[in-house]
Amino acid sequence: MTKYRINKTRFVDQTKNVSFTFDGKKYHGFEGDTLASALLSNGIHLVGRSFKYHRPRGIMSCGSEEPNAICQINDNTDLTEPNVRATEIELYEGLKASSQNCWPSRHFDIGGINNLISQFIPAGFYYKTFMWPKSFWKKIYEPLIRLSAGLGKSPTQPDPEIYDHKHEHCDVLVIGGGISGIISAKIAAQNNLKTILIEDKNILGGSTIYQNNKNFIIDNQKSNEWLMNEISELEKLDNLIIKTRTSLAAFHSYNYLLAKENISDHLPLDKKNGNIRQRLWKIRADKVIVAAGAIERPLIFNNNDRPGIILANSVKKYLDFYGVSTGLNNIIFTNNDSAYETAVSLFEKGISVKIVDIRKKSSSNIVKNAEDLGIKIYWHSTVVNTFGYKKIKSIEIMNLSEDGSNVTGNKRKIQCDCLSISGGWTPMVHMHTQSGGKLDFREIDQVFVPSEKSENHINVGSCNGDFELEEIFKNTNNKVKKFLNINESGFDKISVLCSKELEKKNIWLLPNTISEGKTKSFIDFQNDSTAKDIKLALREGFKSIEHVKRYTTTGMATDQGKLSNMHALGIIADTAGVKMGTLGTTTFRPPFTPLTFGAIVGRSVGKFFDVVRKTSIHEWHVQNNAKFENVGQWKRPWYYPINNENLHEAVQRESKTARDSAGILDASTLGKIDIQGSDASEFLNRVYTNAWSKLGIGKCRYGLMLNEDGMVYDDGVTTRLGENHYLMTTTTGGAANVLSKLEDYLQTEWPELDVYLTSVTDHYSTASICGPNSKKILKKLFPNKDFSDEAFPHMSYQDAIIDKIECRIMRISFTGELSYEINIESKYGKSLWENCIKAGEEYKITPYGTETMHLLRAEKGFIIVGQDTDGTMTPIDLQMDWIVSKKKYDFIGKRSLYRSDTIRDDRKQLVGLLTDDPNEILEEGAQIVSELDKKRVEMIGHVTSSYFSPNLNKSIALAVVKGGKKMKGQKLFVPMENKNINVTVSDFIFLDKENKKINA
Amino acid sequence: MFVINCPYCGERDQSEFSCGGEAHIVRPKQPTELSDDEWAEYLFMRKNIKGVQFERWNHTHGCRKWFNMVRDTSNDKIHAVYKMGEKPPVI
């Protein structure tokens, strides 16, 4: 055993040695240790440097509130993890940890210079200093700040670990496995309620489990022994799930909670492999009982941050739970009775201890116990300074003045190697407030406690402001019974005895002989903000607690101010002379402790990140070397390179072949909505800008859909399959939204219409064959069909049969070429496609992708909604007046087409652009100006589509330009980074204006 | 994440639903007879109440039905759900 491992406990197995390294040096601890307890057992207090001043810092607590002992775990590029609290990580064989925020080492840190110049870097220093000159920011200030900022190092490789999510429902969820949580869970589970108890430590019992003081008696046993029995009883209950190593991350409304379970973090390296690392539980609970406990407060005095200054109850836990002494010559500095339990424990283990108490006296049993043992107590005194650079060596104390606002008399110096501090307790109200609960301020204990209004959750134990054992026991029992509608419980008749605190006193910022400006009284240890910083913020005019927090960064470190927020509030209240309860608190946001990204995303990584939609023809595209483009969730063929062609070369070839002979496109991804009902025609009249009543059965029509604000929303061809039956197509990306919008109008505005909508996008595959030879190919596929223009004209459809399978042929065109689209049930899509390719072989049919499709339609001046429009274009802006019915009384968006804003003639309007140099291809998105000479020129539009057309042998572009309709022939400029491109406004139909090809 | 009692399906998690904004705004029957200001009132103006608000919701990942809901936006308490066309409850 090491010098500091002075006690054998049942929680640490001293027969099982565990070795680990810290900053490269090998140490030993035991199974059951945390990294912090193992370090302390080796006499190591100094674990890192502080964030701003680089002051040496030591372990300060034993839980998630730890501000100082945050370490880097592991040193490999994929598994390394920064900012891990040494107080929370369980020791395992082979653990590698190192200190953060120091260079070259924690013992000698260059950044320590900041401590010497600290009076020149007060709160807001960065905001004030790095403002000027402006040009310094990017090249000098920012790189310098980045170099010195940050705590640990992020991994640089993807996380190889497995994370999991699980949904769970229960009648009662109990948060926290301390004494009040255990009582609650037992009452619930014994009354046939499905109960879950979660606890973030590896065992249940909270701080009572190591409370073996004779002043705390339950049912005539020491409280720890009574609780030990309760836990073994609890584990036998059937309808209780106990989850240890599980911490609550968030408590959302309607009792929806997230909890993170650590599954393999505590296992030795060889046993971690292949295991799930962490699981995020998504729990919906009927009732929630919060028993989250309380966190001990530090005291705020000069140099209160040295290694060896530790919260008093943590000292007790290290001693009674881990068997480790944090020092051999202890002083306890307190304002309350709870620290006396630590004093008695230390004394009983034979360790020297003295007490400094800011109160004048205390008449409780535990204090009497300490006095009886002969422990020296300095009443009505305060610590005014501490000494020792890397470890505390001594302190100076002084008497307090009568009202506690000042110090009097002489300084007295006392030697020590550990200073245990206790400033009282802060109830963990985070969960309560996260769920939407409010807080009340309780003056006598200077605490915020839950103000309970919810019917679905309660707070019990010390998180509810019950601090004394008897109070916790009785109140928890009564409250839980009432909450769950239970008449009696096994705890009704159990007697509880405990020491009771009668004298209370609190001073948020302890007085000193030297002025505040020269003291370092830390409030937020991790972000290095001091009492001086808070006062400076107030002097500079910050009043709201939320502003002071952000200006001084108090409470904004990874510990989220668990130790610091209350003191910041108290000092603000004292300085401003207001009551603390009126200040309110800062917002407690989830997560309570940091969550890994892995736990948040769970299994949704890699190919599970998002749904991938593939057409039934997808395999053929893959086999034929298609490059794919993501369109929404769809994978669409982009182009089909042959012999190492690049995108441009492939598209030029595909486009030329499609116009000269034949091309084929997989159009299966277009949205398809089946519309039926006796009012189907009327419905289409209302949702499209053009008229539908007179469309004959077997005919197709292009439609444009607007939003109610008059802006183009979607477009597509709709086919009348029967008297009351239509098939609507939508854009690929817009399908789901269009259906949802149509349903909205049907269900809410026009419920009287007899119309039924069904999405059939996935039901049909579509092969679109275009080009002058397409008719010949169709004839080969359907030899019995008459494809003459008379029998099968443009914009019509016919049923057909191929290989005994029914299909629909639409003669419609998005390229301007003679073109047919064949729709067939999806499972036959690939076979149909292969038949088309085979039939087209003699005409050198080329499969083409989205890029060629875009080029071909741009040559014809057909718009793509979402590329040439952006939600601010009306049909009039697009020069599509022809499709807006003048006769129809109403359709969605009609009234908006003549609002004062939509009839302006200087709106951005669709035009064609031709570059003066026909080989110059404009960049899509490039800005357009009408003059170059001025220093500031107005942007009058931008390029929406741009290609090199192999069929016209020149560059063509579509653009939207202010007042563009009247600008035909005008010269404009497209300024690029290193040149200006001269362009001329043209018609936006570049090819076959007479529409001859469609009937070629 | 709250639980919504879909009038067609029963209680489901909020993630299955989407909110469609303020309820009981009726599309004018004769838009062409409205002035720009009157049309703009229908088109753009929506209430954003801290407190009890009448909203349209859609069971997007469920029955796809639209319905109305009375929700207190300050604490997400749902006072009522009712079908389209039904009279709003007095809250």
Can you walk me through this structure?
The complex is a heterodimer of chains A (1000) and B (91). Chain A is 22% helix and 28% strand. Chain A is of the alpha+beta class. Chain A folds into six domains: 13-125, 2Fe-2S iron-sulphur cluster binding domain, sarcosine oxidase, alpha subunit, N-terminal domain (Ubiquitin-like (UB roll)); 165-294 and 427-497, FAD/NAD(P)-binding domain (3-Layer(bba) Sandwich); 298-423, 3-Layer(bba) Sandwich (FAD/NAD(P)-binding domain); 514-597, BFD-like [2Fe-2S]-binding domain (Arc Repressor Mutant, subunit A); 670-760, Aminomethyltransferase beta-barrel domains (Alpha-Beta Plaits, 2-Layer Sandwich); 904-999, Elongation Factor Tu (Ef-tu), domain 3, CATH 2.40.30.110. In chain A, a hairpin with a 2-residue loop joins strand 37 and strand 38 (725-730). By secondary structure, chain B is mainly β. Chain B is 10% helix and 37% strand. Chain B contains one helix and six strands. In chain B, the strands form two sheets. A four-stranded antiparallel β-sheet of chain B has the order 3-4-5-6, with no helix packed on it. Chain B has a two-stranded antiparallel sheet with strand order 1-2. In chain B, a hairpin with a 7-residue loop joins strand 4 (52-58) and strand 5. The mean pLDDT of chain B is 94. Chain A binds chain B through residues 252-254, 256, 284, 436, 708-709, 740, 743-744, 747-749, 751, 889-890, 894-896, 899-900, and chain B through 1-3, 13, 20, 26-27, 30-32, 34, 36, 39-40, 43, 56, 58, 60, 64-66, 75-76, 84-85.
